[in-house]
Amino acid sequence: MQFAIWDELLQIVRWYPSPHNSQPMRVRIIDRCRAEIAYDLDRGLPAEPYGIPFGYVCAGIFIELLAVAAHDLGFDVDERLRYDDMDFAAVNRLHALGTVTLTTGRRRMLDLDPALIPERCTSRLPYEPRQVDPHVLDRLRAEARRWGHRLTTTADRGLVDAIVRINQRTLFDDIANGAVRRELSSWLRYSRKEAAQRADGLSADCLHMPGALLRWFIEHHAWWSRPGLGDIARWVYLRSMRGVGQAMWITGPFATNADYIRAGRLFIRLWLLLTEHRVAMHPFGSVITNPRAHVAFCDRVGETEADGMAWMLARIGYSAPPPRSYRLPASALVVEAAA
Question: Fewer CB in a 10 Å sphere around the end CB: N or C, the chain?
Answer without folding.
Answer: C
